[in-house]
Fold each of these.
Amino acid sequence: MTATSPGIEAVLALAREDIRALEPYKNASWEPAFTRLHANESPWPPAFDTADGDGRLHRYPQPQPPELLKALSGAWGVDPSQVLVGRGSDEAIDLVTRVFCVAGQDSVVVCPPTFGMYAVAARIQGAAVRRVPLDAAKGFALDVPGVCAAIDAGAKIVWLCTPNNPTGTVLAREDILAVLAAAAGRALVIVDEAYVEFTDRPSWTLEVSRHPHLATLRTLSKAHALAGARMGAIVAAPQIIALLRRIVPPYAVPEPTLRASLAAMRPDALAVTDRRIARLNAERERLAAGLATCSGVTRVCPSAANFLLVEWRDAGEALARLRAAGLLVRDFRGYDGLGQTLRLTVGSPDENDRMLEVLA
Ligand SMILES: Cc1ncc(COP(=O)(O)O)c(C=O)c1O
């Protein structure tokens, strides 16, 4: 614990009282040495090929598989007790909002333009959304006094995303530390690190043990190429993880997802991932340089992730040209004050060449 960190008790006191008192659902116990006649499963595997689940698709999967928690926590430099896994980090966003926000009473802070699910999860839960926009004139920097004012006004969760989607910006370390100091004992600060693998900055996940009111989100959907498997995690103090475990759906990790995730964490796969990250980062810079020479482009935001936010004189015209060539990009026109912008995901070298040809 540091001078700016509250004790864990103060953080737990922010959680909903009814969730702290909740009697959770009891999963069918996991005892592999026994014949399973306790979970109303089929005694036979499905009639079709079961290679995906390695012959286990007729069995409920192990909740929060220890093998996976060990592999992920090892890769991220934390303890397995600090990790909760689920269906993408999207699920973690939903769970943590539900644990901490009382409907009709609590609020969360979001810093637009940013990932949309923080606000959606809050609205689903009936929590208010306090918007403190990033400062576009300062390269989409955090408005620290604005965030602190929202914490003063009683916000329970502060959502920070670095590198931020859709701007690609890395939030300044001193700004996040200032928010952490202001939030001590009053709010949970959650740093979404979905794209952290693309940066050379140390991960905030390594600091979770020092600040009981800091949590991070991690995902295998981006650099690890597993968007289709749906595997994401929240990293937080073990006591917060224990609270989240009370409400996570009973069998949150399907067997094929478990296998794919474990395979992605093996050294040979991690070595391939590292090479791909270097390649995608180089492609991002090549794409950015090429786009900067395109006549309609007015700004290419510096990005530390696998995408670029690009401003056009007429983004609609660029979008139409890309669509006509069969290329899908994300339209951010008018979204949270972004103006004529599109977000382009960095693809393979061939795909990036096509994009540049179409836009040249
Ligand atoms: C910043 C950020 N966080 C979280 C997610 C959700 O990722 P997933 O649910 O695939 O882990 C995304 C997806 O695009 C994202 O951009």
Amino acid sequence: MLPKVPQARPCIPEEDIAALLEDFAQILRSGRLTMGPYLARFEQEFAACVGTEHAVGMSSGTAPLEVALRYWGVEGGEVVVPTNTFIASSNAALLAGGRPVLCDIDPQTLSSGLPQIEAQVGEKTRAVVAVHIAGLVAPDMEAIRSFCRGRGLLLLEDAAHAHGARADGQPAGSLGDAAGFSFFPTKPLTTGEGGMLSTNDRDLAAFARSFRTHGVSTEGRSLERLGTNYRLPELSAAFGLRQLARLAEHTAARNRLAGCYRRVLVRLGCGAVLLPEFAGRVHAYYKFPVRLPAGQQREWVVAQLRRRWGIEAGSVYWPPCHLTPFYQRELGYGPGDFPVAEKVLSQVVTLPMFAGLSDQAVERVCCGLAELLAEGACGVGQ
Ligand SMILES: Cc1ncc(COP(=O)(O)O)c(C=O)c1O
């Protein structure tokens, strides 16, 4: 029986585990379990890596999105968010008291381009969220940024997939007015749970530091505003520092595996459509999406990959936000609202991708997919 191939897996080399145990011992002996020197160093090194003046560690990747939108005062206003994202991107607008206004996608890139965003901008729009879906900096980022500047809209990068990604040399996380990263276990950099806000706005960074500690001022002990507990503990920060030191190596490994997927899928000529590559971009390859040929059922393909070969495939994202029961019920969205997203995303599967994946596993995944696609539409209804 061949080993299962998970969709994603954290990559923590044995030597990092040994080093982390020493870090953990030092933290535990120090008695300083939160808001200590490891968090300060993690924030400093993360900001240097992303190229922003400030980075603020938080307890999740949703927290920085919510906090930036709160600071920008989106309450009562609208935030334009791609329908193709993890629901946390648009929930952040709701948590901040605003209304997420979803937008369709470009069929080639799976990302919302300027035309799709512009179509949803209105009088009440305060901010736009650009999601670097699957780890590729939004292909229209430059145009989206100029548009937002021209219209006085704030631009939030959801960089939850994009640690290590770049556009023309500029790191994801430094391309908008602020960005949020997630450190969930499947992400290119993990702390188990956690997240980071990156920004050049000193006042936003100060607000985030205060908000994550119940709204207490950063200097003293006075309660300045409503806040909550969005802190990142010292043990997590120590973990994050070790992961950050591996980021370039892990990004290179995922890019090499993506090249391997492309070569094998082209060689097998199975009909799975590869997404375009963009000059000047470093892709984080958080996920490796492919589009199934028309007539293939994604649910069937995903189920058969798992059942026959123990291969876990996933999505970016199915269902899209506007088809979730909550968004249909509470915000009035429904089938047919974003036809491109509905058509394209129902044909997209993501293949296993993580730095520790072997070339042999990539070959097995591609051969399995090719076998299923050769069976073709006989899968329908099974
Ligand atoms: C695109 C996107 N945004 C935001 C988040 C939220 O991150 P977290 O689960 O750490 O809150 C995720 C997490 O999966 C994500 O994929």
